[in-house]
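Saturday, quiet lab. Running sequence design on the structure tokens for the scaffold JK sent over.
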């Protein structure tokens, strides 16, 4: 078992490595993405050419509903906890819950925060957290593919 000092040392080294990496730094600008989330997103989405679009990337992580469709009838199920990258999904879910908790304590600043607060009011915190995690993966895929910085849409003053 590791001591508290060893864990703090590992976290400090991880933070230094992530600060030097351009892609991880850009991914940390997303809502609910911290050190671990940025690193895991880079590992999974590091080569955006592996996926055709953002939905495929989110499905790879396990953040899209399972489909049971046949004969022209679409049946959409729940989010599968078995498929996908469970560590990344867990990190994104925890980050999304933290974002929702923070959003309850202050007014909305961006269009995404308005969308998120309305979704929380309609469907609840956990469903909204999964939706935000899904949107985070899709946004991260677009950022890595296009090589751009994250620019949230601010509300008009």
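Result came back. Writing it out in full:
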């Amino acid at each position: 078992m590791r001591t508290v000092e060893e864990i703090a040392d590992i976290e400090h080294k991880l933070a230094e490595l992530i600060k030097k990496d351009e892609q991880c730094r850009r991914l940390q600008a997303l809502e609910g993405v911290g050190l671990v989330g940025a690193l895991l997103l880079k590992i999974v989405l590091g080569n955006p050419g592996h996926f055709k679009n953002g939905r495929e990337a989110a499905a790879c992580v396990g953040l899209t509903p399972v489909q049971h469709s046949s004969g022209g009838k679409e049946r959409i199920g729940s989010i599968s906890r078995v498929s996908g990258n469970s560590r990344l999904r867990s990190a994104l879910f925890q980050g999304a819950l933290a974002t929702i908790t923070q959003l309850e304590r202050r007014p909305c600043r961006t269009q995404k925060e308005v969308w998120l607060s309305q979704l929380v009011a309609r469907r609840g915190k956990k469903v909204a957290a999964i939706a935000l995690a899904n949107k985070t993966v899709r946004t991260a895929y677009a950022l890595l593919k296009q090589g751009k910085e994250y620019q949230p849409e601010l509300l008009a003053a």
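Notes for JK: The chain has one domain: 20-146. The beta strands are 65-67, 76-79. Ask whether to fix the surface positions before the next round.
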